[in-house]
Amino acid sequence: MTATTQERPTFDPAVLGPALVDALRKLDPRTMVRNPVMFVVEVGALLTTIVWFAQAVGSPLEGTGDDPAWFTFTVALWLWLTVVFGNLAEALAEGRGKAQAATLRAMRSTTTAIMLDGTEKPAQDLRPGDVVAVEAGQAIPGDGTVIEGIASVDESAITGESAPVIREAGGDRSAVTGGTRVLSDRIVVEITQEPGSSFIDRMIALVEGASRRKTPNEVALGILLAALTLIFLVVVVTLRPIADFAGTNISTATLIALLVALIPTTIGALLSAIGIAGMDRLVRRNVLALSGRAVEASGDVDVLLLDKTGTITLGNRQAASFHPMPGVTEQELAEAAQLASLADETPEGRSIVVLAKGFGIRERELAGHEAEFVPFTAQTRMSGVDVDGHRLRKGAGDAIETWVREEGGTTPPQLREELDRIGREGGTPLAVARDSQVLGVIYLKDVIKDGMRERFDQLRSMGIRTVMVTGDNQLTAAKIAEESGVDDFLAEATPERKLALIAEQQEQGRLVAMTGDGTNDAPALAQADVGVAMNTGTQAAREAGNMVDLDSNPTKLIEIVEVGKQLLITRGALTTFSIANDIAKYFAILPAIFAATYAAAGETTGPLDALNIMGLGTPQSAIISAIIFNAIVIPLLVPLALRGVQYKPSGATALLRRNLLVYGLGGIVAPFVGIKLIDLVVHNLLGA
Amino acid sequence: MNVTGWLQIGVFVAVLTALTPVLGRYLQRVFDGEAMFLAPVERVTYRLLGTDPDREQDWKGYARTVLIFSALFLGALYLILRTQGIHPFNPEDLTSPTWDLSFNTAVSFLTNTNWQFYAGETTMTYFSQMAGLAVQNFVSAAVGMAVAAAVIRGFARREAGVIGNFWVDFTRTTLYVLLPLCILGALFLVAQGLIQNLDPYTGVTTLTGGEQTLAQGPVASQAIIKHLGTNGGGFFNVNAAMPFENSTTLTNFVLMLAILAIPAALTNTFGRMVGSQRQGWAIYTAMLVWFVAAVAIVYVAESDSTAAMQAAGLSGGNMEGKDVRFGIGSSSLFAAVTTVASCGAVNAAMESLTGLGGAVPLANMMTGEVIFGGVGSGLYGMLLFVLLAVFLAGLMVGRTPEYLGKKIGPREIKLVVIGTLFVPLIVLVLTALAIGTKWGAPSIYNGGPQGFAETLYAYTSQANNNGSAFAGYTGYLQPNGTNVGAYGITFADVMGGLSMLFGRFVPMLAALAVAGAMAGKRVAPPGPGTMRTDTGTFVALLVGAVALVALLTFVPALLLGPIAQGLTDQLF
Hints:
Mean pLDDT of chain A: 85
Keywords (chain A): ATP-binding, Cell membrane, Ion transport, Magnesium, Membrane, Metal-binding, Nucleotide-binding, Phosphoprotein, Potassium, Potassium transport, Translocase, Transmembrane, Transmembrane helix, Transport
Low-confidence stretches of chain A: 1-7
Radius of gyration of chain A: 34 Å
Subunit structure (chain A): The system is composed of three essential subunits: KdpA, KdpB and KdpC.
Distance between the termini of chain B: 27 Å
Low-confidence stretches of chain B: none
Helix content of chain A: 40-55%
Mean pLDDT of chain B: 92
Number of helices of chain A: 23
Largest sheet of chain B: 2 strands, antiparallel
Oligomer: heterodimer
Number of strands of chain A: 22
Distance between the termini of chain A: 50 Å
Shape of chain B: globular
Structural class of chain B: mainly alpha
Strand order of the largest sheet of chain A: 10-22-21-20-11-18-19
Enzyme class (chain A): translocase
Protein name (chain A): Potassium-transporting ATPase ATP-binding subunit
Shape of chain A: elongated
Strand content of chain A: 15-25%
Largest interface: A-B, 75 and 64 residues
Family (chain A): Belongs to the cation transport ATPase (P-type) (TC 3.A.3) family. Type IA subfamily.
Largest sheet of chain A: 7 strands, mixed
Number of helices of chain B: 19
């Protein structure tokens, strides 16, 4: 869990108020009909209300039974409450995103774009291909790519991170988001978004739940729930003539109560809340899923492609030790290495300076010396400094070898040995030379993040293979793979090889997830089933992926998988619970309805009264208790639906057994206890 | 209850289990198209049918062939029945049954139901029995197995478009499974004393000096297929309780075994064809658990007197409607066997079972006949429940539900729902119509819970293609003991006929469509994250899913019928 995760209370008063209003607004049948289960409850509630009204005004409708008016009223009331509770669950889930959406909207509305030629244009009219200039203090008018300049940008509005970030033309940090603010300098941005479909637009739609399309699993579950509702409708409708044959007249209110008790209202009411909450859980981890489908797919993932750098290892290699050549002291080597690294602002360079300090070498002032720095270039593959007539260089082993030879020196055989040894151990060697003499080798080490091995073990037990992707050579990659505990690795990775690996895994029927940021990651991100683009990345990468991580933290892929699984488990668990509840509801309602059926002459109860194993007070209190349980179980389960069921990463067999026990068996037992308790109150205290 | 009774149940289960992998392997060879001993006959058949045995069909083509084929046979059987007066082999000069009864009967035998509103010996000529009913016994069984073969292929294949050739599956099933087993079986039954002749009925004088007519006929050849093909339609009215149709304890045992042999073996065939026998055994175990529980409940219920029996002064076990040759143990076992399978042959009167004892056969049928079930139809029906169980629980392991590495999507669930819930729906609707309207009333013989149970049983049995009956329910009245002057009860005949047609073909088409969808899917390799479907947990889950989904629908009906009957101390 990252620091950005904040658990709000489920019934946050700030959210609850508007949610209640929303819940009532959602009673509109045109809205309700989209959820067949709850729509049936609403129709039932309406019918019961009509029946009650007729009873209350003293002219009961024919064929609706001879219930006392208070009973019909109580049933109607609780049916309405059932519908409202269901709507409330959805409204609560949506409400959590609404506040965030409001902030985003405020940000979007007020920007004016200044085109490159100086003319102004409203931000909402920008089209892909437009080029705008943005100065310090101005908001960036739309999503785009920096094509000129470098600037620090405040992206806190979307990421919540207050430290400004650098955006520059070229490279992997060229994407800018509309609505963020340039703090310094000036950049020229080429707009890439269509009007109205900017990143912020999509974000607003997502957090509000407006653009939510049902995922395949939701659709399938919806079909099953609708079918169960239909069959129970038939059960209840056909019960009337069957009961008539047995000489038992069942009132309309009772039949409707039975129907509502039997249809899967619990899951029907919570289904959409579960989906919205799943998205919300990702949003709170600063991940934007661009579709619900992607969230579910992340639960199905079989293979995780993880970039070595930044995910498995800390972003930077650290200098670990100095290995001098024969005739050179360690002190001498450290000193030269430090001098050569003084102007090297890379983390590696700095770590060399830090390591050298350990040898008692103070950081020296080069002022006063005649020093000229030689920067690193891709051609020379080394950097260094010319100082006091000496030429110090550090760089890749073979680059230094070549340089020394060109300077007229020779390389000792120990150099090669040392370079190879460090490579084998998974380190990166840097050779250091002074003029024509090789002084020795610096051992740069990849530092594996804490707890990665445990993470990978956990993933393995969940059935997910991890593959480390790195540009390192085979030897180094193998060593780091072994140290970190990943299942497999792809060394000397290029975007093409990465794409090929994904395609190959998918060919075998596996679902692949990966993270990426660069433009050259875009094809792989698009190919992967779950592609998480880093927010710092290029626009191309952000378009190709189906999720964007605002924190740009590649380790988060693992959390995303867990959220996906938790979402599916929550849905399955509540479905099982909902259906298992029916057993107890039958035991409550049916003996109540048929208590007097086939009673012998002179007796008030017939054979089926023996099935009142819960010992419920009266038929009426039994039916009311069942319907109350059915209603209040919805708000009771709202926290579970919004938070997701407890998920401990483990294998499928263990998960299934545990969840079957908790939600299957629990679903059978819980309503027996609940209905009995409610009956004690309703019958014994209230006298029903 | 006694040790012998339990022992017989134990031996039956043991023999059935031992037979399953043997017959399962053989059926796999038949379905896989291996060259077998009648290859020349096969080739000639294909040439006559004009089919290229190597050209396979997609699910739609397969389904279309099954439907056209069935329609033709339905028409043929109806014509045979309606014209039976002019056919040969009619020593008793029987006339044709009425149109409504003929419709009900023709549909009944077409759909492997063998619901009989008539009494065989007073209604059907030998020609109708042999050329009409017996032929359909083979055909309906072979169709069921052929469809099962196609459905299995759908589950087994990867990214495939076709699921087999109906003509090949039908021909090979008939040629290599049903005919050889029935020839052997019929010879065995004749050796055990079953009759096989075309004689007129024989008049005899009983020991007490009364006159009795003994019906005759080609019984043995019909008796074996009616069990092996889970048809169940008796040659005689009292079915396997008649000594000419079920002569000894040994024939009784073999005939029970014949009912479950193929449905049980098909689970193993399924396992072999999808590449893991454990998958087959898991399904078998789920079926067996249910079956053993069913037998035990019936046996316990029948072995003791009910409150109503005690009120009437009776004690001890319930022997009403049972043959003393078989006793309570064997009759209970038979009642469970014939109703878990969609057979419907009986060796005791189902209507005379105690309340609880009668609830079990009803519940068995209400599962949609998936506990072993009909030959072929049991397996493909159960596979739909497997998908349902996988879907319900699969979500709980945090992945999109998958079976055999294939993901279950909205399309599959839609089809599964149609295949599993449509039949309960028509049972409920027709039962309500029959019990609540004046048209249904003439069929009901008893009053009270038993009268309702008769109706419920009739539509449950017909819609699920079982064919056994609570015999009080009537669709055909025979005022003179012959069919002269008899009339059909049109409502019962037509509603029953329609329920059988839809009950057979809707789940069958759903299963074929599922197979078509499954065949095209890609297979994900199993890992620790995938839900296993060959473990004890899954078996429990599958049994639970069948119980919850199939039975929850019928709880109110069962309460008002057999359960009220079992709990009451009154007589109705």
